[in-house]
Amino acid sequence: MTMAYLNGEFLPLHEAKISPMDRGFLFGDGVYEVIPCYVGKTVALQYHMDRLRHSLHEIQLAIAPSDSDLEAILKELIIRNGNGNVGIYLQITRGVVEKRQHAFPERASPTVFAYTFPIDPPSNGAADNATCFTTVTRADTRWARCHIKSTALLGNVLHMMEAVNEGAEEVLLFNEQGLLTEAAACNVFIVKDDQVLTPELDHQKLPGVTRRLCLELLEKYTDWQVRVGPVSREAVMSAEEVWLSSSTKELAPVIAIDGKPVADGRPGSYWSAAQRLFHLHRFDIK
Ligand SMILES: Cc1ncc(COP(=O)(O)O)c(C=O)c1O
C-alpha cells in the first residue's frame, strides 16, 4: 500500500483527499518536484530543494514549510514506503480558497502533498540494459515560463501526446528560431563531432537537476569537449548521439527521431560512459 503525506498527516494514498476549491486543482497554481531515491537514498536532494525554492519564489508563494521540515517529511515517507527504488512526488499549491478568482487570495495556507511511486533500478551504462527512446519533433508551443516547475503542465501533456499518437515515447521541441529547447518531460543532450552539446537555460527550459549533475560530472571526470549553447535542428538531426535527461531516467539514449535512426540506432559510446559516471557518482551530492 502506497503511503502519502498530506498537510501534516501520513496516510494511505487512496485516503488522501483535497478540496475542489484548491487552487492547484482550479488553476494549476502550484509547483512540484520529483526526487529519485534508490534503496532509501535520495539523489541530489539539495538541488531539488534549491529548485523548489526557486519555483516557489517565481510564483510568489512565500509561505511554505522550511527545507528541514520538508526533508524530514520526505525521509519519513521513504521509510513508510519501504526504503525501495522510488520517485518521490512533492507538490505545493497555493491552497484552498472560498471564491474562484484569478488573483491570489490575501491569506492562503498552502497544500503540501507527497507520495512515492516505483521506479526502475538505474542503468550502469551497459548498452544491452539501456531503456531507449524513440522521438518525434515539434515546434515548442508551451508558455514562456518553462523555467518554473509548475503543475500547470497541459502544454507538456499535449506535446507528449503528439509523440504517443505517432507511436513514439518523447518529443524533441524547437523554438521559433529552430533551436532545440527540451523534450516534454526531459532535457536533451546531443553528441556531434565528438562534442557534447546541450541548450543553455532560459525561460523555454526547465533547469533539470539531472542536466546539472551530468554537466558537473562531465566537467569533473572527463576531458570531453562540452558546450552549453544554442543547438540547431540540423545539429540534432545529424547528431551521432542524442540523450534525454530526467530524474527518473537519468541519461537515456534516443535511438530514432521522426522514424529515422540516430546513427546506427543503438546507444552510443559517449552515452554509455556518461551514464556509467552517473552510476558511480549519483549519491555524491547530498
Ligand atoms: C519539461 C521537463 N524538462 C526537464 C526535466 C528534467 O528535470 P530533472 O532532471 O530535474 O528531472 C523534466 C522532468 O520532469 C521536465 O518535466
Main attributes?
2 domains, D-amino Acid Aminotransferase, Chain A, domain 2, alpha+beta, D-amino Acid Aminotransferase, Chain A, domain 1, binds pyridoxal-5'-phosphate, 15 strands, 26% helix, single chain, 7 helices, 286 residues
Low-confidence stretches: none
What's the β-strand tally?
15
Helix coverage percent: 25-40%
CATH topology grouping of the largest domain: D-amino Acid Aminotransferase, Chain A, domain 2
Taken from the alpha-carbon principal axes, the silhouette is globular
Number of domains in the coordinates? Answer: 2
Strand/helix succession? EEHEEHHEEEHEEEEHEHEEEH
- Class from secondary-structure proportions: alpha+beta
- List the ions, cofactors and other small molecules found in this model: pyridoxal-5'-phosphate
User: CATH class of the largest domain, anyone?
Assistant: Alpha Beta
CATH superfamily of the largest domain: D-amino Acid Aminotransferase, subunit A, domain 2
What would you say the CATH architecture of the largest domain is? Answer: Alpha-Beta Barrel
Largest sheet: number of strands, sense, barrel closure: 9 strands, mixed
Q: How many distinct helices?
A: 7
Compute the gyration radius: what is it?
Answer: 19 Å
Strand content: 25-35%
What value does the average pLDDT take?
97
Distance between the termini: 28 Å
